[in-house]
Amino acid sequence: MFDGLTSKLGDIFEALGKRGALSESDVDTALREVRIALLEADVALGVVKDFIASVRESAVGEKVLRSVSPGQMVVKIVHDHLVGMLSGGEEDLPEDILSSGAGVNLAGVSPVCVLMVGLQGSGKTTTSAKLALRIRKREKKKVLMASLDIYRPAAQKQLAVLGEQAEVPTLPVVMGERPLAIAKRAMETARREGFDVVVLDTAGRLHIDAELMAEVSEISAAVNPTETLLVTDAMTGQDAVAVAKEFKEKVGITGIALTRVDGDARGGAALSMRAVSGCPIKVLGVGEKLDELETFQARRIAGRILGQGDVVGLVEKAADVIDREDAEKMAKKMAKGKFTLEDMASQFKQLRKMGDLSGLLGMLPGAGKIKKQISEANLDDKLIARQEAIILSMTMAERRNPKLLNGSRRRRIASGSGTTVQDVNRLLKQFKQMSTMMKKAGKMRKRGLMGGGMPPGMMAH
After folding, report:
1. 22 vs 421: which has the higher pLDDT
2. Among 37, 133, 157, 458, which residue's beta carbon has the most beta carbons within 10 A?
């Protein structure tokens, strides 16, 4: 979502960093360019004005202009002010919320209620299921979902299907039951059957009207939710900010779930949302799959915007899909310098589970600077799938002993995997390089264990 803004800001700060010293006019010129970049990214005008004014006030001081690397100091100031803009000047979510990774406040007497509200088409039902799955997996809590949408055809069935996929129970549908009655029955069922959390998916409308607000307010008063999350689509830009402001005033939302963050929206909604609506963004929908929901953290998002990556987010994605026992087995193999084509296929499988490859690369620091090279290299999920298919087209003996792979075997493998012999050769070359690297790592570790490679003072242990 922030690609365009990241690219423009990167160019501005790179030019700034090349200057040995900065004058006040240099900073003003750079900030004018930043202002244009933010406005082009669809950030609200009032938010941009306040942001630029606060950055300038911090950046033109004598301490910054006469520092060893003034360009870097300006980048740091912009980063800190971005964090302030995204978090509303407050700290990120409390540690007890962030530690679980759920992103929402679940403190309270069970069953705790999370009320999902928003306009029709914002992704409310899917986000409800994503959040329920995240709470079940990360919090290890028993979650019940209930659809209060009796107006949209098949809305209740959609939540039931998503519930099956997420392995989260949904409240059985009673034909003709009104939304308020459904909400009360869900809470009573949760109390009786020992559920920890209830996620209520309310009905949406095509636009905000008095009937919608009255219904949501009535339900909220009856269930007393711990969180009332407004689900809003990042692709709608500044309209999403206006919707958030109105829901805040009329319903009293506690946070925002921003969907379709992986789309080609310009990012202005996310940057304006906190400042204009006064509501924190709690979670981000970063893909269509049920596990593609992230906790919003201002520092990490600011880092991504400024091309500094999000290594913490990358590690979290890995932790979600990589089995700890498998990882330990792989580490032992690598330590011994043993690495087979089967191991390589396993690595490809885990990498594909983590999501879109270009998105993962974008989370690495400095990835923005080599965006063109990454694009030209055609590094996508299909490439990894093809490499995995090549290995799966080999026999067990061939995977364990690549020396068996003569010309005729390589042609058979290429035919069986729908690739070319050149593709097979490239994969084997890649495997050989990785295998050599593993052996070197294994030898270094072995020398260390024997004492030859240990740092002074370690032998006593």
Report:
1. 421
2. 133
One-letter amino acid for residue 91 of the chain: E
Q: For residues 416 and 393, is the Cβ–Cβ distance under 8 A? A: yes
Alpha carbons 54 and 59: distance in angstroms, whole number: 9
Residue 122 and residue 59 share a domain = no
pLDDT of res. 145: 98
Rounded average pLDDT over 165-172:
96
pLDDT confidence of residue 27: 83
Domain boundary among 273, 307, 341: 307
Tell me: do 206 and 229 sit in the same domain.
Answer: yes
DSSP annotation string for 37-80: HHHHTT--HHHHHHHHHHHHHHHSSHHHHTSS-HHHHHHHHHHH
Could you check whether the bond before residue 111 is cis, i.e. omega within 30 degrees of 0?
A: yes
Does residue 303 lie within any of the structural domains? yes
Q: Which of 272, 307, 342 is the last residue before a domain boundary? A: 307
* 288, 303 contact by CB (below 8 A): no
d(CA 319, CA 362): 18
Question: Does residue 441 contact residue 337 with C-beta atoms inside 8 Å?
Answer: yes
Instruction: Report the distance separating Cα 211 and Cα 445, nearest Å.
Output: 69
Length of the chain: 461
Which whole-number Å values give the CA distances from 368 to 17, 38, 304, 371, 375, in the listed order?
A: 16, 17, 9, 5, 11
How many domains does the chain contain in total?
Answer: 3
Domain with 50 in it: what CATH number?
1.20.120.140
Same domain flag for 229 and 114: yes
325 burial via Cβ count (<10 Å: 0-12, 13-18, 19+): exposed
371-416 pLDDT per residue, tens: 555 455 555 557 778 888 999 999 999 988 888 999 999 999 999 9
Average pLDDT for the chain? 79
Residue 231 belongs to domain spanning: 95-307
First-residue to last-residue Cα distance in the chain? 50
Q: How far is CA 44 from the centre of its chain?
A: 24
The vertex-391 CA angle with 389 and 395, nearest 5°, equals: 120
> Where is average pLDDT lowest: 46-50, 269-273, 358-362?
358-362
Give the whole-angstrom CA distance, residue 39 versus residue 85.
15
Q: For residue range 245-261, what is the model confidence (pLDDT) as tens digits? A: 888 888 889 999 989 88
Do 404 and 398 touch, CB atoms closer than 8 A? yes
Q: 10 Å Cβ neighbour count for 157?
A: 12
* Amino acid making up residue 173: V
